[in-house]
Specification:
Helices cover about 40% and strands about 20% of the residues. About 30% of the residues are buried. The protein has about 210 residues and is of the alpha/beta class. The N and C termini lie far apart (about 45 Å). Strands 1, 2, 3, 4, 5 and 6 form a 6-stranded mixed beta sheet that branches. Strand 1 and strand 2 form a beta hairpin. The radius of gyration is 18 Å and the shape is globular. It is built from 6 helices and 6 strands.
């Protein structure tokens, strides 16, 4: 079996919650029909679908897009998970430079390791399950990206992953452009809505206005 996880992250520091990491897990064999369904549903959206691009004019189109995504989740074709931190839990014991440099790698590692229950996806443990990881926001240098690929690929050597025959090869960890991946766009919209609400941006009054938007 081959699986794909589309990954995105958002809101580095929010009012109440920060470090949002989200992903959608699909079977590689289901990719084409899922993409076709989502592309049909997002017909009224111009350009890339993103939470930050929603306006009153295309609100209904986004509702149709997200409804189709939720239908795919309900039907078991897509599994989506979101992880975030609560600001009340701080890391003052770490130096700022160390925290910022390592945070991206450590949180993505923990997200992939725990969020989807991958070590339980192969009950008979007879066949090897290959996992591809598509990253929307990858490290900014090739050296950092290569190190990060090695970091994620090392999950395969963990006892639970190795015993369950979960394999992540370095070449299967890729940086992708979300404009070309409609599943990743759906993740962005849903995760953006979650962080927007949790951090109470819906209560914010725009500058120069007397009421919230």
């Amino acid at each position: 079996m081959q699986y794909i996880i589309y990954c995105d992250e958002s809101e580095d520091r929010g009012r109440f919650y920060s470090n949002f990491y989200g992903g959608a897990l699909i079977k590689a064999a289901d990719r084409q029909p899922i993409e076709e369904a989502l592309n049909t549903a997002r017909d009224g959206i111009n350009g890339e679908a993103k939470w930050t691009k929603i306006t009153e004019q295309d609100e209904n189109a986004y509702v149709e897009f997200v409804t189709e995504f939720f239908d795919l989740i309900e039907g078991g074709d897509v599994k989506m998970r979101v992880m975030f931190t609560q600001n009340i839990h701080n890391t003052d014991h770490l130096q700022d430079e160390y925290e910022e440099d390592a945070k991206y790698y450590k949180l993505y590692y923990q997200f992939i390791k725990h969020a989807f229950g991958l070590m339980f996806c192969n009950e008979d443990k007879q066949n090897i399950n290959h996992l591809a990881i598509y990253l929307d926001d990858a490290p900014d240098t090739q050296e950092k990206l290569d190190n990060f690929k090695n970091y994620l690929a090392s999950l395969s050597s963990l006892p639970d992953f190795f015993e369950s025959k979960i394999r992540i090869d370095k070449q299967d960890v890729s940086e992708v452009n979300s404009k070309r991946h409609v599943i990743l766009q759906a993740v962005d919209v849903v995760m953006g809505a979650i962080q927007f609400r949790l951090n109470e941006h819906h209560r914010a009054i725009p500058k120069g206005k007397r009421r919230r938007g």
